[in-house]
């Protein structure tokens, strides 16, 4: 199959029953793709919904179950679309509401879910609400934003975009007051103390669920409320808002999900699941684990990862982590210690241009110096963690980045489909593209592209596809618990994923899989302690090969080549 020419759209427009499985979000592999970066169907230099729809077959072929599309709404695009000026309109460059509806039904026809992204903490300063708020303080939108006469309120709140902002307050020359903003100064924060703001947000959420989306990512969710005493992150009122929103979703849109983007310390991130009685989000991105994966790869030491995974709080029934290696933002280092942060800057951001705010603006393949062993190790670990994996577009072919572009655009360049003009992304005059495709020595689109990797059986793309297909055969990866095991080698991480099987709606059978990863840059031998599994037989999940049985004392030994992993089925005990 070639994906360089438009693919004819096939299939029914709706699959009845797609939402019947209440655990769908726990069994899915998601793919994040920015609409403007994927396929340009009309040659104007911008990717669009028709283009994205034309490549759904590719995503299905790869083994993707859900697509996360970052904001595609009307926007001045000063923050990649996270600066929204109309939440109920599609940016004309991306298409129309009808194009979006068509995209959703074609995704559903392929058994893929669609997750959109709603930045509700703030709007663009071009949003009509803000224009009205600054013009008419007494009018209906006067209190839609957080206005003050001075720039002194909320003194304990940190600045997030430290590269560009010096204060969370900005002066508005029209209203002659200061307004509050957690991100860029062109993104005023909505005032959640105002009930009318809640109504407006509910209208937006309902609008998109009514169009058939399966999930909503709650962008920047910790920052909704601020207080004089607090630090403006995850304040009690913010959690109350999320709980109320969840109740509405459960009542009106059962089976659809909310996912929290909360870049917080482990315990605080987990709070976005709420409790079984008072749930908040169905999913939350696992920000704590992600940077520790990159740390382990270079430190050749698994102990920090071992600690975080062993301490990971259990999520309420039906909830799931969203695990990821990279996304459209910088690899954030906000939630690691200063010592780790400095080590990671040294390993991964040795050129100052690679940094952005408190993080690193590079893609997976270039972070890992294009090492195939490391790419396989990192992806296999991602696919083994408790939760649902989110891949970032282009990482399946090992796309590189362009640190000469501004800010996070470094890793938002056109998808590389083929060695043709504009990497097969667009037929436009190259100068017209929203961003140029990568043309660096190692990652040039003439060598790194989908077409070439499809033609080569041993390519990263084909490896990704096969590992995704193996994972899909084993629901334990999505549904199971995790038990971290002791090893006698600090560069080796070992854990068991276990699923008991509950027999409901043809639920999967009981299954236990041992996942072992060696971060060492040299071959190693390790002895692992699995006291609960003495006498159990081990078989490789890929080829079925038999491994030594676990000894009576629960120990067994493995030998690893450089940076490698095993997925071993744990069979019946003798
Ligand atoms: C989220 C988005 C990021 C955006 C920010 C402000 O963190 O992931 O891309 O810049 O919100 O909207
Ligand atoms: Ca276009």
Question: Can you give a write-up of this model?
Answer:
The strands form 6 sheets. The protein has an 8-stranded parallel beta barrel with strand order 1-2-5-9-10-11-12-15. It has a 6-stranded antiparallel β-sheet with strand order 16-18-19-24-21-22. The N terminus is likely disordered. The chain contains 16 helices and 24 strands. With 574 residues, the protein is α/β, with parallel strands linked by helices. Helix 13 packs parallel to helix 15. The site of alpha-D-glucopyranose has 9 residues, from loops.
Summarize this, please?
This protein has 574 residues and is an alpha/beta fold.
Number of helices: 16
Strand order of the largest sheet: 1-2-5-9-10-11-12-15
Give the biggest sheet.
8 strands, parallel, barrel
Q: Ligands in the structure?
A: alpha-D-glucopyranose, calcium ion
Shape: globular
What is the topological layout?
Layout: E1 30-32, H1 35-38, H2 49-54, H3 56-62, E2 66-69, E3 73-74, E4 86-90, H4 97-109, E5 113-119, H5 128-135, E6 147-148, E7 169-172, E8 177-180, H6 195-210, E9 215-219, H7 236-252, E10 257-260, H8 266-270, E11 283-285, H9 289-299, H10 303-311, E12 320-324, E13 331-332, H11 338-348, E14 359-360, H12 364-367, H13 372-384, E15 388-392, H14 450-454, H15 460-472, H16 476-479, E16 481-484, E17 486-487, E18 492-499, E19 511-518, E20 524-529, E21 536-540, E22 546-547, E23 555-560, E24 565-573
Parallel strand pairs: 1-2, 1-15, 2-5, 5-9, 9-10, 10-11, 11-12, 12-15
Antiparallel strand pairs: 3-4, 6-8, 7-8, 13-14, 16-18, 17-20, 18-19, 19-24, 20-23, 21-22, 21-24
The structure holds alpha-D-glucopyranose (GLC) and calcium ion.
Organism: Agrococcus versicolor
Keywords: Calcium, Isomerase, Metal-binding
EC number: 5.4.99.16
């Amino acid at each position: 199959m070639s994906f360089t020419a438009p693919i004819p759209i096939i299939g029914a427009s709706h699959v009845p029953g797609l939402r019947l499985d209440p655990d769908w979000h726990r069994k899915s592999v998601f793919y994040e793709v920015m609409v403007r970066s994927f396929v340009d169907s009309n040659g104007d230099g911008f990717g669009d919904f028709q283009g994205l729809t034309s490549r759904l077959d590719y995503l299905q072929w790869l083994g993707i179950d859900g697509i996360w599309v970052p904001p595609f709404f009307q926007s001045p695009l000063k923050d990649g679309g996270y600066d929204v000026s109309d939440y109920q309109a599609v940016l004309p460059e991306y298409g129309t509401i009808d194009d979006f509806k068509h995209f959703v039904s074609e995704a559903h026809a392929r058994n893929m879910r669609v997750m959109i992204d709603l930045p509700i903490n703030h709007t663009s300063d071009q949003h009509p609400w803000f224009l009205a708020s600054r013009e008419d303080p007494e009018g209906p939108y006067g209190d839609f934003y957080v206005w003050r006469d001075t720039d002194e309120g909320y003194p304990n709140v940190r600045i997030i975009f430290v590269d560009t902002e010096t204060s969370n307050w900005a002066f508005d020359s029209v209203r002659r007051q200061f307004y509050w903003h957690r991100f860029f100064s062109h993104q005023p924060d909505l005032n959640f103390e105002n009930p009318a703001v809640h109504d407006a947000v509910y209208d937006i959420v309902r609008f998109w669920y009514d169009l058939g989306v399966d999930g909503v990512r709650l962008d920047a969710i910790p920052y909704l409320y601020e207080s004089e005493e607090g630090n403006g992150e995850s304040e009690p009122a913010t959690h109350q808002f999320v709980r109320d929103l969840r109740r509405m979703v459960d009542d009106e849109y059962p089976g659809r999900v909310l996912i929290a983007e909360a870049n917080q310390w482990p315990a605080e991130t987990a709070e976005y699941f709420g409790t079984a009685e008072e749930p908040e989000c169905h999913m939350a991105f696992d920000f704590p684990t992600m940077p520790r994966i990159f740390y382990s790869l270079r430190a050749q030491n698994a102990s920090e990862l071992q600690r975080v995974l062993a301490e990971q709080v259990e999520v309420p029934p039906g909830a799931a982590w969203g695990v990821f290696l990279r996304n459209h933002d910088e690899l954030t280092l906000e939630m690691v210690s200063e010592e780790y942060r400095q080590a990671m800057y040294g390993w991964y951001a040795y050129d100052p241009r690679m940094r952005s705010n408190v993080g690193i603006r590079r893609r997976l393949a270039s972070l890992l110096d294009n090492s195939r062993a490391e790419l396989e190790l990192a992806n296999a670990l991602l696919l083994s963690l408790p939760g649902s994996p989110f891949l970032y577009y282009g990482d399946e072919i090992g796309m590189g980045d362009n640190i000469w572009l501004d800010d996070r655009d470094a890793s938002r360049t056109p998808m590389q489909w083929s060695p043709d003009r504009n990497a097969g992304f667009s037929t436009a005059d190259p100068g017209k593209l929203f961003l140029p495709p990568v043309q660096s020595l190692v990652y040039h689109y003439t060598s790194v592209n989908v077409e070439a990797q499809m033609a080569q059986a041993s390519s990263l793309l084909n490896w990704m596809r096969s590992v995704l297909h193996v994972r899909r055969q084993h629901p334990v990866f999505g549904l199971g618990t995790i038990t971290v095991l002791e090893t006698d080698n600090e560069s080796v991480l070992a854990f068991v994923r276990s699923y008991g099987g509950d027999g409901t709606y043809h639920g999967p059978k009981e299954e236990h899989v041992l996942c072992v990863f060696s971060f060492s840059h040299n071959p190693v031998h390790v002895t692992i302690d699995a006291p609960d599994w003495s006498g159990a037989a081990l078989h490789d999940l890929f080829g079925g090969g038999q491994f030594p049985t676990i000894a009576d004392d629960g120990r067994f030994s493995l030998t690893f080549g450089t940076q490698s992993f095993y997925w071993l089925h744990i069979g019946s005990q003798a």
